[in-house]
Amino acid sequence: MGRRSLKETRQKEIIKVFYKLAKKEGLENTSIAKIAKEMDINPSLIIHYFQTREDLTIGLIDYILDKYQLIYKVNEKKTRDSKAALLEIIDNIFSKKWNTLFDDGLFYSCYSLTFREPEIRGMYKKLLDTLRSTLSQYIRQCQIEGLVDAEDAEHIADSIFVLVDGAYFYLSLVTNKKEHQERLNKYKQQAISMLRISEISLVE
């Protein structure tokens, strides 16, 4: 059990350095040799924990996708207030927090692998399905409490993530900070309007 814990810890250390370098130099330009040099270790040690470059890439993608779960981290004071919790999640989705959690360039480089690698495609789909399901659960709870007038929680959750996917792809092309924020606010308002919540107070 101790050996497994050490292995997982070492793997995570390697993946974090991989993430850092891939973010800076690009996924395709980050080799095992470069990671080893950055960590001041022998490349064979990385191969010991990840037998191939593909295994290492899958570990990186798993690390990136795991970050998505943080979007649903709600302030403890709001967990008992269903509407406040739902609005905080919507705010997290359409906020700078999303940008600090994920690097657009690296995300899309990894995402492009879904078209060629069935395992990676499955990882992305499983995660995105889980995100939609979780959001729909928050919406459904608000429905039960009479806080939202949306009829189909699953449909609304899916529509919000379709909006998110399109919004962030476009926003990755916008370099003007003011325009970026204005559009982000606009997309957030569109998502909120789907929920049909009245007298809302957005998280700043």
Overall geometry comes to: elongated
- CATH-defined architecture of the largest domain: Orthogonal Bundle
Q: N-to-C terminal Cα separation, in Å?
A: 45 Å
Text of the CATH class of the largest domain: Mainly Alpha
CATH fold descriptor of the largest domain = Tetracycline Repressor, domain 2
- Taken as a percent bin, the fraction of beta residues is under 5%
H-E order: HHHHHHHHHH
**Unreliable spans:** 200-204
The CATH superfamily of the largest domain appears as Tetracycline Repressor, domain 2
Strand element count: 0
Query: What is the total number of structural domains?
Result: 2
- Rg (C-alpha, Å): 19 Å
Please identify the structural class as seen in this structure: mainly alpha
Describe the sheet with the most strands.
none
- Overall average residue pLDDT: 86
Helix content estimate: over 70%
Count of helical regions: 10
Structural features, described:
There is one protein chain. The protein is mainly alpha-helical and 204 residues long. 71% of the residues lie in helices and 0% in strands. It has two domains: 2-51, Orthogonal Bundle (Arc Repressor Mutant, subunit A), CATH 1.10.10; 65-195, Tetracycline Repressor, domain 2 (Orthogonal Bundle), CATH 1.10.357. It has helices at 2-25, 32-39, 43-49, 53-67, 82-93, 96-101, 104-111, 118-144, 153-171, 177-195. It is elongated and about 60 Å long.
